[in-house]
Specification:
Layout: E1 3-5, E2 11-13, H1 15-22, E3 38-40, H2 41-47, H3 49-61, H4 66-81, H5 87-93, H6 96-113, H7 122-125, H8 129-132, H9 138-144, H10 146-158, H11 166-172, E4 208-210, E5 229-234, H12 242-253, E6 257-262, E7 273-278, H13 282-288, E8 293-298, E9 301-307
Helix pairs in contact: 3-4, 3-5, 3-11, 4-10
Length: 317
């Protein structure tokens, strides 16, 4: 969804979403979510009525995997945010067979996000969904920003998807009769190898939420350190200090370094790797430029950078 901030930091909502929000608030030129301390679940359902309609189609009509469907909704919400308007509305307009095919194609793309491809595979370029939904070139652009995309989907999963689809997940569950209000729901497909774990409770319809941390745009800067991290390796016999790592990346990319974690080694061992945490996940994509590994040089010593994965710390991958 297209949320635009002006110079004062005030938020305005794109036309496709603002019309829905304006129906909830009268005599107001804008809908200022930041001013709301609490919000009822029923209002959230109205705000996200189109994503709920699409999710209902996916899990109840097409009987698709609920966990996979949540991830796809997160992806399409992100697409609307970055400039592909009305993707969800266009998806709802598709015939069920075409929609099912489109969803299958996007599942292929999600698998592509997790791959180590350095160029766009032909099967991704041939996906017809971009033409059907007015997203020509979209998948190639997202590939160039794939770690930003993964982080954004996580953000939507932890915010919107954790609150507005719980009743639909409940109805899609074969164990629905065993669940009670506020109980954690089992979501097939989670924990996910790319998007991690997801805690979703069965919220009763009269529940009221505290809005801090609820909206996806409020948590845009609250990205896990691992998602913002690069795994830095050096050549044996040519150790690189933390200061040299910071100098290298600051000179090339500006003030982008949050912290450096050096490898835990014995006193008589030289470190061969470190974890570099950047200030934003976007910098990961800028530095790697769609490649698995980026090579640099500082003070005559080679430095290699690749995306950090949780668990890499004591040993090299």
């Amino acid at each position: 969804m297209n949320f635009i901030y002006n110079a004062r930091g005030d938020m305005h909502i794109s036309p496709s979403v603002s019309q829905l929000c304006m129906s909830l608030v009268t005599n107001s030129p804008h809908f200022y979510f930041k001013a709301m301390a609490f919000i009822a679940l029923v209002i959230l359902h109205r705000i996200y009525s189109l994503p709920r309609m699409l999710f209902r189609k996916m899990v109840l009509d097409l009987c698709r995997c609920p966990g996979e469907s949540l991830i796809l909704i997160g992806l399409w919400l992100w697409l609307e945010e970055v400039g592909y308007p009305n993707v969800i509305m266009k998806s709802l307009a598709l015939h069920e067979v075409m929609l099912d095919n489109a969803l299958d194609e996007m599942v292929l793309y999600l698998g592509y996000l997790a791959s180590q491809f350095t160029t766009t595979p032909p099967y991704v370029l041939s996906l017809s969904i971009s033409q059907d939904l007015g997203m020509d070139g979209c998948l190639q652009v997202l590939f160039q920003h794939k770690y930003t995309t993964i982080s954004a989907i996580k953000r939507y999963l932890r915010t919107v998807c954790s609150y507005v689809f719980t009743d639909l997940l409940y109805h899609a569950s074969p164990d629905a009769s065993y669940y009670t209000p506020y109980q954690l729901l089992e979501v097939p497909g989670f924990p996910h190898p790319i998007f991690g774990s997801l805690n979703i409770r069965l919220w009763p319809m009269d529940h009221v939420f505290y809005t801090q941390g609820l909206w996806p745009w409020c948590s845009i800067n609250q990205v896990d350190a691992d998602d913002r991290a690069l795994f830095i390796t050096f050549s044996k016999g040519f150790p690189v200090t933390d200061e040299e790592i910071i100098e290298l990346f600051t000179k090339r990319f500006g003030d982008c370094v949050d912290m450096v974690d050096s490898a835990n080694t014995k006193l008589d061992e030289e470190p061969l790797f470190a974890r570099l945490v950047l200030r934003t996940v976007e910098m990961v994509d800028i530095i790697l430029r769609g490649k698995v590994t980026a090579k640099f040089r500082i003070n005559g010593k080679h430095v290699w950078a690749r995306k950090y994965r949780r668990g890499w710390g004591r040993y090299r991958p």
